[in-house]
Design a protein that fits this description.
Strand content: 25-35%
Helix content: 25-40%
Radius of gyration: 27 Å
Largest sheet: 9 strands, antiparallel
Number of helices: 19
CATH topology of the domain at 45-90 and 146-329: Beta-galactosidase, Chain A, domain 5
CATH superfamily of the domain at 45-90 and 146-329: putative glycoside hydrolase family protein from bacillus halodurans
Number of strands: 37
Length: 800
């Protein structure tokens, strides 16, 4: 038996690489030089697979692959294989103006109506005069919709209705999907991956009997304007134009074979009696940026296919794994043994945190996999469905919803050691900070920039849909929180100075102008706005005030670090003190609005007024325990149910409340099987572990992973708290590569529910305060140095 060997970073080695080869049954070993002891690869890393014993019957059972530019869903069907694919810039609509000229003249009237308690009249006036501009007919809409590009179909000559030994999997360690089966005495294998270096989706088909690969490959698209053409004797092309938009798209499919015959028509490639076949699929659009759609997608596809003529499949696969693992191998988590012998869909159906804690660990690593697959530097950020979508009119247009969902997509990026993958998000922020200036002027007569509750490929920032939820002004401030958080984790002062602070400052300038004094209380309030997406258009929602305080405070700190803007800092400090504070209501709850009108029976999916608990730190156990108790009461009133992303937010909140058992209870709901009832999907996860909003919405995957990280480590208060919300069910475990603010990377393990090992690596250097239980340890760290600590009787001791 041949055993694969790995080094500590997960890189595969063979003989001749200076490593000894070991064979010990099916045990997998991590490689080491001959002068070092070889240690077993953690079982959880070896078991990082989603696997199934049958093909995908629907899209939400297919397995996702992606490279940040292309995404594909692999069905693994035997007789007619299907890959549905997307390209990240294929959207409806096109560059245009979204802000509504003259809207600002109605702002005083809307505010006056709200102050007078005339909510419906204010909403009606706003509907008529304050919303953003729609696109032109025939399909008039406020913002664009993310589009499916096409489908790759493989129809096999020899049907295999009696296929046996079927196995379908997604290998997270190497970012490879596989389908294997036996038919007519022949064992077939298909490997699929999306290569970032090659900018292509790759599919290889092999069999253990020569001459057994015969099929016809064709491209399809749901887009109404398209045509096919033959490029050469190994390549065909699909050209399309997006309906109700200006974008043009192009997809090329190339095949190479070992032996056999290849026949190419305008619309199909037929392979006959090959030993093996490799397909390369790429796609591009005419999109250059949100203002320019003059690109040449055919030329872009041609460049990709031309580069594929040189390397062979093995070289392409090796480059793909190396590229992927530079991100994936920075982190690992083990929460205990699990039921890995069961197909993933069965594990979901019978998930019990006590008997299968490994599924929660797999869920974390799957979220990291999805982020690497969907968010790469230089590309678009993840939308409501990441990069995967098969519908012409997807739910909520699969846009960037900025009143929770877009931000939640990136909650785990910093803490789970994927900081570089925030670059697409920051690129979008840079764009909307430009388009948001026009909206700030036209709608509010204000400097700086503003973003409402949605944006799209064209970087729209105006209010959309309906005034009772579309006029929400805090998107710019919330996105600025991510800029500051990135600095806190990385301590990258160049990033702070050149990218983050100018955008943060401009967002703060808007709110300095926008906040007005409430005549009844004398506080500064945000009006008009809403508490997403609950209660309609109001004056002074709690969430706004929490986010604005966060923005002002972060700008004050950033300006101090950069030694700039002293006068502006004084303005922010003065305004900060005047913003309406958090209030406790008659039910002991944290008020969602200025008025004490919360309904304790409400189970609304949004918990917007708890933003100050998580992801913010406006309310903490250290500084405001009474408000934390009130916030916890609000969460108890909202209950333990909700949509996927709502459950994910609650996991994070219960972690901040230091209640790991309740957080795990919510996580169990997030991992519950999705069920269809009366034509609607209910539940937490589809069989491919996609979040079932309902329907599919990827933010729950990322929010859930973030919540698990918060259960194990918190660093928002200026110190690092270890295992702050460890549930009883996770008695033993380990995590390596988890990140903390201040520029620290931690490896730690625990047993019998107590921390027993800790290593801290200082990536930036500086003071590091560690807290475990009632113990505190101060370290003065140097950049690049590792600090090993032991834990005895719950006491932290530095050993080297």
């Amino acid at each position: 038996m041949v055993t694969i060997l790995w080094d500590k970073t997960g890189t595969k080695y063979h003989k001749g690489k200076g490593l000894q080869i070991f064979a010990d049954g099916e045990k997998i070993y991590s490689g080491a030089t001959l002068s070092h002891i070889v240690t077993p690869l953690p079982a959880n890393k070896a078991a990082l697979k989603l696997w199934y014993d049958r093909p995908a019957a629907r899209w939400t059972a297919a397995l996702p692959i992606g490279n940040g530019h292309l995404g594909a869903m692999v069905f693994g069907t035997v007789n007619a294989e299907h890959l549905q694919f997307n390209e990240s810039t294929l959207w409806t609509d096109g560059p245009r103006e979204h802000a509504h000229p003259g809207a600002v003249q109605y702002l005083p009237q809307i505010r006056a109506l709200l102050a007078a308690g005339k909510q419906k009249e204010a909403e009606q006036l706003a509907e008529e005069h304050f919303m953003g501009l729609k696109s032109a007919a025939p399909v008039s809409r406020y913002e664009a919709a993310y589009q499916p590009f096409g489908d790759l179909w493989l129809h096999f000559r020899d049907t295999a209705s009696a296929a046996t030994d079927y196995h379908r999997e997604l290998d997270l360690t190497n970012a490879i999907a596989r389908t294997t089966y036996t038919a007519n005495g022949i064992h077939y294998t298909r490997e699929y991956f999306a290569s970032a270096p090659q900018k292509a989706v790759v599919l290889q088909l092999t069999a253990d009997k020569p001459g057994s690969i015969s099929f016809t490959a064709s491209l399809k698209t749901p887009q109404p304007e398209y045509h096919f053409r033959k490029i050469n004797d190994s390549t065909i092309a699909l050209s399309l134009k997006v309906h109700n938009g200006v974008l043009k798209g192009e997809s090329w499919l190339k095949v190479s074979t070992q032996k056999g015959r290849v026949t190419v028509s305008d619309s199909a490639i037929t392979i006959t009696d090959a030993n093996a076949a490799t397909l390369y699929l790429t796609a591009a659009t005419s999109y250059k940026n949100y203002q320019d759609v003059s690109g040449n997608p055919a030329a872009l596809c041609g460049q990709v296919i031309a580069k594929l003529a040189r390397p062979d499949y093995t070289a392409i696969l090796t480059a793909h794994i190396k590229d992927y693992q530079q991100y994936f191998n920075t982190f690992s988590i083990n929460l205990g043994e699990g039921q890995t012998q069961l197909p993933t869909d069965q594990r979901i159906r019978q998930f019990n945190p006590a008997t299968d804690p490994a599924l929660a660990a797999l869920y974390v690593e799957y979220a990291r996999y999805l982020m690497i697959a969907a968010s790469r530097p230089g590309g678009q950020p993840m939308n409501l469905q990441g990069i995967w979508n098969d519908q012409m009119t997807p739910p909520w247009d699969s846009k960037y919803t900025t009143n929770i969902n877009f931000e939640m997509n990136y909650w785990p990026a910093e803490v789970l050691h994927l900081s570089p993958l925030t670059a697409p998000m920051f690129s979008l922020i840079k764009d909307v900070a430009v388009t948001g200036r026009r909206t700030a002027q036209e709608h509010y007569g204000a400097p700086g920039w503003v973003l409402h509750h949605n944006t799209d490929l064209w970087r729209a920032t105006a209010p959309i849909n309906a005034s009772n939820h579309g006029i929400w002004v805090s998107g710019a401030a919330w996105l600025s929180h991510h800029l500051w958080d990135h600095y806190q984790y990385t301590k990258d002062k160049v990033f702070l100075q050149q990218q983050a602070y100018p955008i943060m400052k401009a967002a703060a300038e808007f709110f300095v102008h926008f906040l007005v004094k409430d005549s009844a209380t004398g506080w500064l309030i945000s009006t008009p706005s809403n508490s997403p997406e609950n209660g309609g258009l109001v004056a002074g929602p709690t969430m706004d005030h929490q986010i604005i305080r966060d923005l002002f405070n972060n700008c004050i700190q950033a300006a101090s670090i950069l030694h700039t803007d002293a006068a502006f800092v004084q303005t922010l400090q003065a305004k900060y003190k005047q913003i309406a504070p958090n209030q406790v209501g008659k039910h002991g709850q944290l008020q969602e609005w200025m008025q004490d009108v919360d309904d304790p029976e409400s189970r609304h999916r949004h918990v917007s007024h708890l933003w100050g608990v998580f992801p913010g730190k406006d309310i903490t156990w250290d500084q405001s325990p009474d408000l934390m108790k009130a916030a916890r009461q609000s969460l108890l009133f909202r209950g333990d149910g909700g949509t996927g992303w709502s459950l994910a937010w609650k996991v994070n909140l219960w972690a901040r409340f230091k209640d790991g058992n309740h957080a795990l209870l919510i996580l169990k709901g997030l991992l519950a099987p999705a069920e269809e009832l009366n034509g609607k999907v209910h539940g937490g996860s589809f069989t491919n572990l996609f979040d079932a909003h309902p329907p599919f919405q990827i933010d729950g995957n990322f929010g859930g992973a973030s919540g698990i990280a918060e259960m194990l480590l918190q660093s928002h208060m200026g110190y690092i708290e270890l295992l702050p919300a460890l549930p009883d069910a996770w008695t033993t475990g380990e995590v390596s590569g988890i990140c903390a603010r201040g520029g620290f990377v931690l490896d730690m393990s625990w047993s019998q529910h107590k921390l027993d090992r800790l290593t801290v690596t200082a990536t930036a250097g500086g003071p590091c305060e560690l807290r475990y239980g009632k113990q505190t340890l101060q370290l003065n760290t140097q950049k690049g140095k590792r600090y090993q600590l032991q834990v005895t009787d719950d006491r932290l001791t530095l050993i080297k």
